[in-house]
Amino acid sequence: xxxxxxxxxxxxxxxxxxxxxxxxxxxxxxxxxxxxxxxxxxxxxxxxxxxxxxxxxxxxxxxxxxxxxxxxxxxxxxxxxxxxxxxxxxxxxxxxxxxxxxxxxxxxxxxxxxxxxxxxxxxxxxxxxxxxxxxxxxxxxxxxxxxxxxxxxxxxxxxxxxxxxxxxxxxxxxxxxxxxxxxxxxxxxxxxxxxxxxxxxxxxxxxxxxxxxxxxxxxxxxxxxxxxxxxxxxxxx
DNA sequence: TCATTAAATTGTT
DNA sequence: AACAATTTAATGA
Length: 237
What we know:
It is built from ten helices and eleven strands. By secondary structure, it is α+β, with helices and mostly antiparallel strands.
């Protein structure tokens, strides 16, 4: 796997791309321009890594368009924990705050446009902007809940439930505001994410559609009942 | 704008 | 894993 070279391949984002950054509009004009001065975007091709475990954390990353996969290596060397990173998501603040190297790998599931803010600017904003602090704090808090849910998902062995829970995580409205009611993800990509074959994902999606939780669309799907997905397969339902 | 072709994605075995 | 059917994207008149 090749690590992406942000320094060389990056460019300045366009206006429409900037619109996909959820925290920018909450900042004061001065801080917006501070962020925009250093904001860069780069296109990651399938299989390319945005960041790698052990590398020094130099950027705060966000997804403009596309889909990334976050995988956390085990000590044994077997990659275990997977999480999807859809448009509107920003990540890395935890490691940036602690000044540690990255503790997970991020790789592109499909061609993805990634934005990056240098670590110095991230810290400047953290010191100077209250709205920025709110965003980061909220982000950390919400993600804590995500990880707890992820532990439970890993224990589930029923494929239909796994797919349902993973989908509900991807549609998280606070962490991933860029995801509307339609998520652009192919069944193949969902398979890589959940750890199932494409065929099995296809079966699971049809079950979920039959229960009116989602609607399958070409190259993606639409969520009809997010709450229903979230507790699918649990004793309550 | 429309018709044709290629590529991507899905449904099925 | 392989194949056919379907949808989208690209191309050119």
